[in-house]
Amino acid sequence: MSPLDLLANGFSRIPELFRGATNGLGAELLASAPARGANSIAWLAWHTARGQDSWTSDLDGSAELWITGGWHERFALPFEARENGWGMAGKDTAQVVAPAALLVEYLEAVTANTLAYLDSLTEGDLDDIVDATRTPAISRGVQLLSILDDALQHAGQAGYARGILERSRPNGCID
Q: What pLDDT, on the 0 to 100 scale, is given for residue 90?
């Protein structure tokens, strides 16, 4: 399996992981923090999609789907269009309220865009330096792996948060 195939396989798993974490939960429960100071499942899903959208668009030189695809309007969050969640204060993370279907749909669109971008690359493209300001310089392949790593970590956090929410409800019932 080539490095591009491995990256594509990894990225293709993310929507399903979030589908499992959000399935059957209403927007209010998705937006509730499983513990004080913790991020909600809604914020984790939104931030994961926004991060992947932002970083991939930087790599391929395109505009973010969040803006061009009308997602900013569909979510109607009280943030500037360029907001992606990095460094966001807890009071702001709590404002990410959205239904599961919308969260997963945006993540699926972003993932399709990422997979199309990966399909346009050659293995040699992975060695291109995309950020020479860092030491060591960051290659396209390392940046893509960082995006995937961030997404998979947040997907795991969302699954864990769901487990906490389930265990905090009577009889483990969250619907």
A: 80
**For residues 21-47, average pLDDT:** 94
92 exposure class (CB count in 10 Å sphere: 0-12, 13-18, 19+): middle
pLDDT band at 172 (very low <50, low <70, confident <90, very high): low
What is the pTM for the complete model shown? 0.94
What CATH number does residue 80 fall under? 1.20.120.450
Q: How far apart are CA 54 and CA 63, in angstroms?
A: 8
Please report where in the chains the tokens 């059957």 appear, as a residue. 24
Interatomic CA distance for residues 113 and 128, integer angstroms: 20
Q: Which two tokens stand for residue 105?
A: 């749909």
CA distances (Å), 73 to each of 27, 67, 87, 102, in order?
A: 17, 8, 22, 12
Structural domain range at position 12: 3-172
Give 131's strand partners. 138
Report whether 163 contacts 35 (CB < 8 A).
no
- Give the bridge partners for 129, in sequence order: 139
List, for residues 120-130, the tens digit of each pLDDT value: 999 999 999 99
Number of domains in the chain: 1
